[in-house]
Amino acid sequence: xxxxxxxxxxxxxxxxxxxxxxxxxxxxxxxxxxxxxxxxxxxxxxxxxxxxxxxxxxxxxxxxxxxxxxxxxxxxxxxxxxxxxxxxxxxxxxxxxxxxxxxxxxxxxxxxxxxxxxxxxxxxxxxxxxxxxxxxxxxxxxxxxxxxxxxxxxxxxxxxxxxxxxxxxxxxxxxxxxxxxxxxxxxxxxxxxxxxxxxxxxxxxxxxxxxxxxxxxxxxxxxxxxxxxxxxxxxxxxxxxxxxxxxxxxxxxxxxxxxxxxxxxxxxxxxxxxxxxxxxxxxxxxxxxxxxxxxxxxxxxxxxxxxxxxxxxxxxxxxxxxxxxxxxxxxxxxxxxxxxxxxxxxxxxxxxxxxxxxxxxxxxxxxxxxxxxxxxxx
Amino acid sequence: xxxxxxxxxxxxxxxxxxxxxxxxxxxxxxxxxxxxxxxxxxxxxxxxxxxxxxxxxxxxxxxxxxxxxxxxxxxxxxxxxxxxxxxxxxxxxxxxxxxxxxxxxxxxxxxxxxxxxxxxxxxxxxxxxxxxxxxxxxxxxxxxxxxxxxxxxxxxxxxxxxxxxxxxxxxxxxxxxxxxxxxxxxxxxxxxxxxxxxxxxxxxxxxxxxxxxxxxxxxxxxxxxxxxxxxxxxxxxxxxxxxxxxxxxxxxxxxxxxxxxxxxxxxxxxxxxxxxxxxxxxxxxxxxxxxxxxxxxxxxxxxxxxxxxxxxxxxxxxxxxxxxxxxxxxxxxxxxxxxxxxxxxxxxxxxxxxxxxxxxxxxxxxxxxxxxxxxxxx
Lengths: 378, 378
What we know:
- The structure is a homodimer.
- Chain A is built from 13 helices and 12 strands.
- By secondary structure, chain A is an alpha/beta fold.
- The first copy, chain A, has a 7-stranded mixed sheet with strand order 2-8-7-6-5-3-4, with helices on both faces. A 3-stranded antiparallel sheet of chain A has the order 9-10-12. In chain A, strands 1-11 form a two-stranded parallel ribbon.
- In chain A, helix 5 runs parallel beside helix 6 and helix 12 (316-329) packs across helix 13 (353-377).
- Chain A is globular.
């Protein structure tokens, strides 16, 4: 097929957008490579799987797939509201955090308006800002940490509508304490909303997570069933914010967009906190093992409050990209940050034993091949 | 809770949108009523259920719910492309037709630009047009039929970007022959795209459905697994159009928005054409039975090329609304057209025997109660 051309009827904004995607999925890579992966450690999925209660609930609900899901996701929102101690009007459920980020940008960012994020932070957020014509301003990481004070200062300077902050952070795995987040919110100008992406909150120390206060108009907090709950394939994200802000989502969202079985799966997962705790413990053990594997080859695994580890390959972005390429060539799916100096790292999900063993086997070969390539170019 | 107020940071467009939804789901009604429905015949779901192969495939795939779905829905798009004889680049899969309609409006309709639909046609399309600030122009039905020539003429007059036409039609169940659609496309001005909603194509006579021609830039055709495939709860819609137009969806869509289990379910359903044929036969029998029930009470069931029947209650919109209200009060979930003169009808899905029996029991009581109410007001 020839390269696509813009249909002449596209809006000027749509025509201006690139033919590019924020992430290439592993299935696409498998088709390109013509070979399956031996380890699936690139998308921070939970290879330990969902709760057995979820599997049972999904199997029981399969014959009900003919019915649209509840357009209000009422039972699920009620369970989430109870869990977080907020009213149900503060909770919106959507097709993953990705879907909710898209709605949020659409609601708050008119074309040309400013948005602030960190250089190297979540590409899909930047994708949505571009998609709605927002003007994205980026702030560098401070070391391996997002810089809340600089984000807020830039929001002030640019008159931003939205400030994106992930805590714990992706792709570095670092985190800030709740009081640091609270201070950033106190300093946030009134024209801006902070979107606090807490996709990895289940793995974080308690002191990283501020208490929920549904009356807070300054922040919307995003959570997901894709990580600790092991339900990435069911697309269930949620956000908690002031009821007035949450009500705006209902003005634009795909009202019957949630799969009925996804609602069932999320509810079943909430009913099994023991499985969640066991998953977090497995992830902790896997992160320790990833640190050991990295250290055995002279690499430094960064501290992580998530379900992945950023491993500093020790020789800059080009070298890390070569390591990643060689890992993929050895059937290990991993990803890496896209921006210097974060891109000296590869990002490896804390997966099950077999996947980590495949990574452990491939890593020394990948490092050697990357070093050979670097020597050959020198 | 108090009524929601607009967050002051909303864009002017978002602030201008009403706090209203296109459809109130049956689950919401059940919560309001405090009582379950005895018959679920309001959303044109397929009460005959999905294929046993789908149920089996869903049960087998449940443990895989931890993996994101393929962001390209490659296997499913490939199967659909083969089924319709078009290249895979002509096929986009999305979170139901509703989700795809939203993307389409976003891609083609800048604020203030004209869009044409029929007065009383699919409310969710109108919802998306409003949501992106489009200027919706409506054309009346001609009798119980959408009026392709008038739609095209209005597109010409208004400089419309999009013209919506459902064939077979919802909510009336009527249909046009393929040659009538082809003639409308021939007359369509170059600035407009026709969105041909074929959600009910599986129930339609062959002569209603034009052949697919992937090179046609004038039309995008929408299909769904929610109706004949019995998978409304899995949210799988697709569209077929020119590859350049389809490529534009990838610029804005939620790339990992499709549930992995939904992709699995749709593929399994495509592998069972016998089940699909059996479902269509059951729907045909149910429509005959609905006609019999209507006729037994002096009402006229309109001919239908869909999986529902519009039943003319014979005395205008207020009376039909009263009948609907009395049916709902008797635990029968049905819906009806929102615009005169279509609103002289109620719309009843062609469901399984038990649901039709509940409808048959409730209808004479509902008619009597509606007549009493009308007499009391007279």
